[in-house]
Amino acid sequence: MPLSSRPRGGSKRHGGDLAAGLREILAADRVLDRPLDLVAHASDASVYRLIPRAIARPRTAREIQELFRFSQANRIPLVFRAAGTSLSGQAITDGILADLSHDWRTIEILDEGRRVRVEPGAIGGAVNRALQPFRARLGPDPASINACMMGGILANNSSGMCCGVSQNAYHTLESLTFVLPTGTAVDTADPEADQILREREPALWRGLLAIQGEIDERPALRERIRAKYRTKNTTGYSLNAFVDFERPVDILQHLLIGSEGTLAFIASAVLRTVADLPVKYTGLLLFPGIREACAAILPLKDTGATALEVMDRSALRSVEHQAGVPPEIAGLPAGATGLLMEYQCGDERERSALAAGVTTVLGGLALIRPPRLTHDAAEQAALWKVRQGMFPSVGSVRARATTVIIEDVAFPVERLADAVVDLTTLFRTHAYPDAIIFGHAKDGNLHFVLSQSFNTAPAIAQYARFMDDVVELVTERYDGALKAEHGTGRNMAPFVEAEWGAEAWAIMRRLKALLDPAGLLNPGVIVNSDPRAHLAHLKSLPVVEDEVDKCIECGYCDATCPSRDLTLTPRHRIVVRREIVRLASSGADAALRAALEADFVYAGLDTCAADGLCAVACPVGIDTGQLTKRLRQARHSRPAHAFAALVARHFALAEHGVRIGLAVGRLAQAGLGARALTACVRAVRALTRGVGPVWLPPMPAAARRRLPATDRTAAVAVYFPSCLSRTMGFLPGEPTDVTVPEAFVAVAQRAGQPVWIPDRVSGHCCGMPFSSKGYDRAHREMAARTVSRLFEWSDGGRLPIVVDTSPCAHGLKTCRDALEPELRLKFDRLTILDGIEFMSAAVLPRLDIRRRAPAVTLHPVCSVIRMDLVGQLERVAAACSEEVFVPPSAGCCGFAGDRGWLTPELTASATAREAQEVRTGGETACYSSSRTCEIGMTRATGRIYRSYLHLLEWASRPSLGAAG
Fold first, then answer.
1. Domains present along the chain, CATH in parentheses
2. What is the pTM of this model?
């Protein structure tokens, strides 16, 4: 990205409208100032909250320079925010919030994966996926890597479970491109970068050299700095830059790592990657107490352990009853401590040697259970689930109206046992009975998690006393680090001097003044002279709904949400919902509440796909889509609910109506043209205030009414064609030789696994079209009728039921709660399978594959992801093709049943990234497992998407002359 050395000139603004001034810099649609948007962005993953005055979404370095100029000219704070997963309040402001999450996503692989260039809006997990073919990955491995963005990873010097000190962002950095608050832009990869910095910022260049000289003249301070960074430490600025580097430009670029956006803007970075070792050896060790566990750390570390994760008894107790957790954890004695260890290597021969060395060490350890060791991927995932479930476990069971606090501190490894005991004593002293301790024992890095209310003055005072004691414990008793990997943030900013001492603290203050003399860049973070700053701007959480009350606003869900680039994410919906309830309960600012409620209808409800992928990403499994459905339900009138129930009772007529509508629409399109018909339908919608769907090509033809003939006597399964398969036929340009039901029946027959389609299948449905819109009564009626028929057709559950459309299969699998108790008993006897499961397990092993496609691109729909069937879909496709490609950004297409016709902009936004990644070669065919999703992807890419069943039928067809 080309950078200018200075921003354009501009006069200082005196008063006036802030958003109007920003729109002189940015396009109007990239400046947000509605109350709904401001409230939605008032929170990050921390316990702090500040409402910005405006949100800017810059796309270029030039615009960044202009934002700096505008901030300084108007004395308004400026904060850069990427994913907003910050745990310490670094990504919020009451000034201008520059949101980078919608752009700045470039990932460029260099030197065959040995290096990678990233922009701040790229998600860490996406970078690793891009590096995967090269068997490389980022050095930093934070737990939030599938949600956090590179801007935060760099700005916080993030690490993680295996990263340690040597592989963090600081030590894997090769070069930065940054913009200073003055507008000066520097690319440190330029051989002349230091000279450029000297010429354009002489005072800064000299100031950095002066500080370096002062540190060199103070041996005790220099050694103090070196010692602090031999272990994990992100408290304050990265002063090790002054002892590790000579040139001011090298010092500066490393100072920016871990600076939490308080010194400059990082436009891009080149990082050295580390090897992604494929072979892993994992074990769970259980000790009688913390001292025995800590005594094992150094011996295991010396054998080459990549990760050593300690878990106290309270932490183990918090997950011991969760599904998949090893049974031996339940019933452990008080004081028992776990140690999760993992070794990583390049091939199996290395693993065998590692295992031998580990076995020798284990023989000398005081264990209360035999060690659980494995190199099986599924068992390893189960062991890591123990460790990864601890933070969310406290979040999911905490009292309502409380939030979750997670802090990370570091102690000398040799004193870790004493530190755990002392921390546990503090929990008892300050009345935190639910607190747990776990962490990266190999690095002496402990996390403690507790729940806390900030709704009353006594609760805040309790927290203040606790934090004072934590600071004393870490800094004075153990000379440790108050922050090991989460960044200083607002919570520890008042205590930086307590950890570092007066000399180092004075240098940090000079640094801030040197680079940001106006103090407008993320003020209050790292450098803060207010001793009670950690007690300001705390979140107060009202009691709302179950989904809302469980949310800790971590932002893990943001990256999976199809509306993330259009309106709101699940986190935003919850934050706004909390504010509406907060205003309603206090009776304050009725106008603000009215504005939020009015805008929430479209942004919060109409554009929510309710796909449930947020629950997959959420640490506590919150499905914001369920909340959306209930809120939609509350907005429907009684006549609307009655009409929906009537449609459900006469669903066969509704199916017939859809087929007629598609047929008439195709005829009208042929006569008027697609553009004219679309315009006519939009005009009707405008007159009726949005009633009815949009006619937006490509539109399918009506499906053939007749289903293929089948025989019940020989059937191994009941085949339930979804209402989508029964009503929506071929897309324009799609081959019309075989329908989805015909393909399903033919493939099953060829494999000797014949299926039966019931005669009276028409009029039955999973009920999802009603549940997604909030018509719960209609959903219950439809689910009850369909489940009753399925029980009858399956001979009381003897035969499995197979559904050809994944969202419908998921809808049936999850409809139990909508049934009456008697029907639940019948439901529990049913085996409901998605077609992918049936084809992968029962059909594919028995099927003669006669030909293979050159290349296949798949779109795994959201329900396939939720049912964990992506691997099985890929297996089916791989059997029928030479190459299978799943775009890295593949996710929910946002069609959401009929949202693609009601709010087509949702689908357009949701598919934009994936569409750019879809391969365009002429031999590449595209497949999915839901007709509406296939329509959405066809619309987005211009390539026809079909059911994977067509691929399977073609690949196994005895002759290409005819199907069957």
1. 18-99 (3.30.43.10), 279-391 (3.30.70.2190), 399-496+508-535 (3.30.70.2740), 546-628 (no CATH), 648-840 (no CATH), 850-956 (3.40.50)
2. 0.92
